[in-house]
Specification:
Structural class: mainly alpha
Number of helices: 12
Largest sheet: none
Distance between the termini: 42 Å
Oligomer: single chain
């Protein structure tokens, strides 16, 4: 029982840290400026401490990356891992070694730590072995769960902003802008609503400027996002360019379709609320109602039975 409570507590702590990691953060520029002002106010000692922590973090990062590169050289890197990391927002070449190194070292660290700490807590040998296996498996699964959660969050953000981006794209094209200039304009305007979608549209324009064909750049957009709605938009734009049809008309029809899909998703989410409310009703509200309604009656019944017995 103690081992189960310990595992549940550690899992809850990891879940709390995971939620904190998923919480929105301030921009990097604001963070760097606040850190600089804070370091100026605290003096040289705090600056040295901050630099020391940064050096330790960089040293740890280099160790993980070196270990990940060793794993990558021995086993190779499947294209699916690279694609998922790009969809999660890690396009850097060092992302793959860091991911592989984390998946290899984190189980060893958690398993080794539990192997040392669990016997000190007075657990039996069987319980210690179970704890080591549990934490090692958790360390192996956590990086995959984090990457998957980050992909879903980015895709959800782009999915919410895509209908509005398409409306802006239709207006820009009908106003006389070319498709490339319209993508640049939409990327600038949509930045406040969805920085992820703005970044991806800007990358399309940068690839086209670098000499990549528009069709290939659009296909790269679909691969980087992994979103079905963007893939259908890319397919429509490619077919429009091949057959020479009106881009504005095709975009308007597609924008109407996206708005209809967004309304249908909202209706679907509203319909699911009744099912989701069953669990809090059954486990939280109904017991309290039973205590309030039946409690006085039970007290009177118990008092009557005691009087009858006396």
């Amino acid at each position: 029982m103690l081992l189960v409570l310990f595992c549940v507590g550690v899992s809850a702590a990891f879940a709390f840290l995971f939620v904190l990691e998923m919480a929105p953060r301030r921009s990097q520029a604001v963070t760097e400026r606040l850190t600089e002002l804070q370091s100026i106010g605290l003096g040289s000692r705090s600056v040295l401490q901050r630099r020391h922590r940064q050096e330790q973090a960089e040293r740890l990062k280099s160790v993980i990356q070196a270990f990940g590169e060793t794993v990558q050289q021995r086993s190779g890197v499947p294209g699916a891992i690279r694609q998922r990391l790009i969809q999660a927002g890690y396009p850097s070449p060092s992302a793959v070694p860091m991911y592989l190194g984390t998946r290899a070292l984190l189980p060893a660290v958690l398993g080794g730590g539990s192997l040392i700490l669990l016997p000190l807590l007075g657990l039996s040998a069987a319980g210690s072995i179970f704890g080591v296996v549990y934490f090692a498996a958790m360390g192996y699964v956590l990086p995959t769960l984090y990457v998957g959660q980050r992909i879903r969050r980015r895709q959800k953000e782009m999915q919410r902003a895509l209908p509005d981006a398409l409306d802006m794209l239709v207006v820009s094209v009908e106003a006389g802008l070319g498709l490339n200039q319209a993508l640049v304009r939409v990327a600038e305007e949509i930045d406040r609503m969805s920085p992820v979608l703005s970044e991806q549209l800007s990358l399309v324009n940068l690839e086209i400027r670098a000499g990549t064909a528009r069709e290939e750049a659009l296909r790269n957009l679909a691969d980087r996002t992994g979103l079905a709605d963007i893939a259908s938009l890319v397919g429509m734009l490619i077919q429009t360019e091949r057959f020479g049809t009106s881009v504005a008309q095709a975009l308007r029809i597609h924008a109407d379709t996206m708005r209809t899909k967004r309304r249908q998703r909202a209706e679907e989410a509203a319909a699911k609320t009744t099912i989701k409310l069953i669990f809090p009703l059954v486990f939280c509200i109904f017991p309290a109602m039973f205590v309030v309604i039946l409690g006085p009656a039970l007290i009177q019944i118990i008092a009557a039975l005691k009087g009858f017995g006396g």
